[in-house]
Write a structure and sequence with these properties.
Number of strands: 43
Helix content: under 10%
Largest sheet: 5 strands, antiparallel
Distance between the termini: 73 Å
Shape: globular
Strand content: 35-45%
CATH architecture of the domain at 19-122: Sandwich
Oligomer: single chain
CATH topology of the domain at 19-122: Immunoglobulin-like
Amino acid sequence: MLSCISIAHLEPETVQSRASSIQDFEYISPLPRASLVSTGTTIAIRHGEAIQVDSVSQALFTVIGSRSGKHQGETLLADDQKTVIFKPAKPFVTEETVSVALSAGLTTAADEILAGITFRFFTSPQKPILPERQLPNRDNDVKAPAPHNLGYVTLPEDIPAITVTLAAVDEIATGYIFLSNINWRSSVTTTPYLLIVDNRGEPVYYKKLNQPTGDFKKQPNGQLTYWDYPARAYQVMDSSYQIVDSYQAGNGYNADGHGLQILPNGHALLMIYDFKRIDMSKIVPGGVPTATVAGLVIQELDTAKNVVFEWRSWDHFDITDTNVNTTSAQIDYVHGNAIEQAHDGHLLISSRNLDEITKINRQTGDVMWRMGGKKNEFTFVDDHSPFYKQHDIRSHPNGHITLFDNGNDRKPPYSRGVEYRLDEVNMTATWISEYRNTPDIFGAATGNAQRLPNGNTLIGWGSSWPNVTEFKSDGTKVFELTFAKPNISYRAFRFPWQGQPVTQPTLVVQTDGATATLSYSWNGATDIATYRIYGGEAPEPSGLIETQIKTGFENSTVITGLNQTPYYFRVMPIDRKGNETRYSNEVVVPE
């Protein structure tokens, strides 16, 4: 399917090549005749067969902008050995026609020499629009959130309070809970954190952020990722919590924070919100001539961060497919909020404002099917209600999918995690199970449903309290956790995790002269069994005062009988194998 948007300056396009030549390539980006293309785009073609690297010459592409002229650039073969990419040395300009000629000569691994092709695309009439970040700011009657109720002195006071109301220890899945708090619709000031907590709600790791984040999780490769809004990038942390990499969108775009998926081959999938000024009066009665419309762009980045796949809603979805008001001045017509590699290798996306799950051919970018919303192609079997404004589409090896159904347009509204069995031949979606609270709760936005290794399902309820519930397959609750209002978590996950921080353990000493209370912790350490407390009248004390079993995020020791002679303290965490790790900071009393 080609562009669904009519732009007044575009004339009908005729592909300037033999049709068979274009058809020789399974993927071309931007699509021939595509409109609203980013001025920062690269150009990519893929035949489908492996390409001999020696045939990828710098003279393959001739690229000419109608306003910017001829473009020099770099031609390269991506790490899939199939996708050939041209990276212009300078951006294109707005509102121009770009003509692309690929010379004959690319040679497949089977020694087939590919014919050349020519095509054109059209850049966006305006520079990228970057609306300011707007966080909901309502419900001003919400009281200031309580500080954490753990009484710990080595923990920041503004970490949000967490309460675990249910923990059936023998029935919950292994692992820690991953959260990132967001102030939900309140003018009250809260501080955003990345949080890993245990089944008691005890912190395991925290990281203070400057802006709220939406997607803190462990990737299949064992690394942690989170959305860094000021950088418009996903940061990658290793097991020591050090930032070791980052992912940004390519082709002149800024990434969106709804989710990053790192794939087994090292590639990454991310989403982009592409804001355009569109004359909606030509599309719907009463439309605003200068409406700002947000489209969705999906990118796959290879291990060198090249864009090897790009899919744009402008090329496949009509704006009128949406279920939001199209006469508004601002129209978020897709609102992509999840991307998933299905088990057959193709892609699934969740589009909240279409009420739709879409399957996209990973090789060609073609839409394979649409489920839900106005363009639904499936028959739903045994389900009592459609899904509405959903989040978090996930694919499973048995052919099932799960999603978090926010349920905004259901009457009355309630949220659920729901599982379907898909028959993609007969186009049926059979309801298998669902996970609802008792009584029902409604999370108007955000949320997720995570299938756990033991068969349990973890539900992040989004903008509602409680925030997290874990269910057995029969629907029995086995775990529940909640923040103090107004904090919620965009998503919630459970993962096994081993953290080995490179930072020092923290020691804080409070004293009234004769008595000192030592409080100590090690942010992010998961393998600590005991603490050895050392003291002495000289720096780097080696006198063992006591050994304490680790009981929570923070332990404490009370020392009595001190006098005015300076006394030095430090703490050594001992791991579960009995090994020393590293000393804490050293504290002397009196100072």
